[in-house]
Structures are given as structure tokens and as C-alpha cells.
Design brief:
There is one protein chain. By secondary structure, this protein is mostly helical. 31% of the residues lie in helices and 2% in strands. It has one domain: di-copper center containing domain from catechol oxidase (Orthogonal Bundle), CATH 1.10.1280. Helix 3 packs across helix 7. It is globular.
């Protein structure tokens, strides 16, 4: 029977407590850090050689769908009642709103070192030491809204700009793709600075701190953010029923993207699954 991922704003006190407890237990067991390491390992950019699966590629959406399911499976082995809630950042737009409450993810980082000092994931609580990352910091950091160079969260209009594009992705299948739903949602735009960060990417920038870069999984908000991104993909699928994941065939030998992106029926590392198999997960979960 399919379980439900709820809007974070509708969680009861008990649901918040169970979700947090399951995350902390996963961290205590050392399993959570494996998710952080995996995300770092698969953060391959346009400028690097080899296959891109998690970012700057058509498989951005199915890769994170499976990644999220793996985390959820791990949490549900601890507490079968738990599912990952989603954070609709087009509605919950303040550093004072959910999910930034003391009984859920805690709040913003303090001025200076941006260390999160309240909530269950604060370093001083002793249960959330960062062990995998691209820096030596042991504590969770945030800079909600970027105090020194303010940036806003994406709006409903920003999301609609992506949603109305009926083509899933377009050549050259990377961060420079000017059309296609995938890159408009992932958020690699043209220009420099904040104007180039759209939708998904802009949220990472707005949260700041640990959410910047490959080790962004160190902040539990990563999962709530990607649950909403996954919901947006589902809504796009429902709106554009005749359109599917692209490319449907691998880029031809001799072209720049040959061997660099995953086609619809190719295996999506590190799993023995294809993007095609991840297009419909309605039998596993639904959104409330």
C-alpha cells in the first residue's frame, strides 16, 4: 500500500518528533553519512570527464527520486510510520516559517560562523556532527536568505515557467540547455550571480551554509527540498502526459555527450534501474 508524503506545514507534533527521531537514529548508526558521501561522489559537473547522473543532466530528476526513496526506506526500517515531508518553498518563504522550527529542523545559523545553534540538529546537542564533507566543519551551517547579499526563494511564477515547458530535456543535455523542463527546474541559467540560479538551485543558495555544494545532504532540509522537486516533476508528468524522459536514445558516438548522459532505457548508476522504471512510483508513495 502506498504511503503519503505530507506538506511539512501539515505535520502534527508527533509526526515531527518521529521524523526527527528517525533521522537522528540513522545518523547514530552511521548510515546517514553514507548518503552524504554518495551525493558527493555523484556530484559530477559539465566540466568534468565521465558520466553525469545526479546533476547537470537529464537524469537529475530520476536520480534524486531513487536517492530519496533509499533514504526513506532507511528511515522506515527504523520507524515504519515515517515518510519524508515536502517543503513548498513557493508558500513557506520565511526564515521564521516551517520547516525552520525548533521542533523540526531548527533555525538559521548565527552571525559570524553561521553555525546552527537551536533545534535537534544543532552541534551542541551532540547528535549531528558532520563527518563527510568538502570542508573540515563539524557543525551544521545555514545562511537563510543570505544576510550580506540577500536572495529570494523561487516564486510560483518561477515554477510555472518551468512547468509549462512540455519537453522534458533538450540537447546538449547539460547545464547550458536553454529549453526543457529538467534544466528549468534544476535551475542552471545564464548570466552571473543570483540571476543565474533558478528554482531548485536557487533554494540551495537561499539556505546557504551546508546546502552549498556536493555535501548538501548534511542539512536534513535537503530531503524536504527534493521531495518538493519530486512533486513538481510528478505534476509536470500529469500535465504533459504525452511527454516522456529524454533522451530516449543515447547520444551518438562522436558527439560531445556520448557516454556522458543516461538515456531512458539505460541503467542509472549506482542502481540497477533505468529512468523509464522511475517515471511512475505511484504504487510506492503519493503526496498529500
Amino acid at each position: 500500500m502506498a504511503y503519503t508524503r505530507k506538506d511539512v506545514s501539515t505535520l502534527t507534533a508527533a509526526e515531527k518528533r518521529r521524523f526527527v527521531s528517525a533521522l537522528l537514529e540513522l545518523k547514530r548508526r552511521g548510515e546517514y553519512d553514507e548518503f552524504v558521501r554518495m551525493h558527493i561522489d555523484f556530484y559530477v559537473s559539465d566540466g568534468e570527464d565521465g558520466l553525469r547522473t545526479a546533476h547537470m543532466a537529464p537524469s537529475f530528476l530520476p536520480w534524486h527520486r531513487r536517492f530519496l526513496l533509499d533514504l526513506e526506506d532507511a528511515l522506515r526500517r527504523i520507524d515504519p510510520s515515517v515518510s519524508v515531508p515536502y517543503w513548498d518553498w513557493t508558500r513557506e518563504r520565511s526564515a521564521k516559517s516551517l520547516p525552520w522550527s525548533k521542533d523540526l529542523l531548527g533555525g538559521n545559523g548565527r552571525s559570524g560562523d553561521r553555525q546552527v545553534t537551536e533545534g535537534p540538529f544543532a552541534h551542541r546537542e551532540g547528535k549531528w556532527t558532520l563527518r563527510e564533507g568538502v570542508t573540515d566543519a563539524e557543525y551544521l551551517t545555514r545562511d537563510l536568505g543570505r544576510a550580506k547579499d540577500p536572495i529570494g526563494l523561487p516564486t510560483k511564477d518561477d515554477v510555472e515557467w518551468a512547468m509549462k515547458d512540455g519537453t522534458y530535456d533538450v540537447s546538449p543535455w547539460n547545464s547550458t540547455s536553454g529549453g526543457g523542463f529538467r534544466n528549468k527546474l534544476e535551475g542552471w541559467g545564464s548570466g552571473r550571480g543570483s540571476v543565474s540560479w533558478r528554482n531548485h538551485n536557487r533554494v540551495h543558495r537561499w539556505v546557504g551554509g551546508a546546502m552549498l555544494g556536493g555535501a548538501s545532504v548534511n542539512d536534513p532540509v535537503f530531503w524536504l527540498h527534493h521531495a518538493f522537486v519530486d512533486l513538481l516533476w510528478l505534476r509536470w508528468q500529469q500535465r504533459h502526459k504525452e511527454h516522456r524522459y529524454l533522451p530516449d536514445k543515447p547520444p551518438a558516438p562522436g558527439t560531445a555527450q556520448h557516454g556522458r548522459v543516461v538515456a531512458r532505457h539505460e541503467k542509472l548508476p549506482p542502481w540497477d534501474l533505468t529512468p523509464d522504471q522511475l517515471e511512475d512510483t505511484g504504487g510506492i508513495y503519493r503526496y498529500g
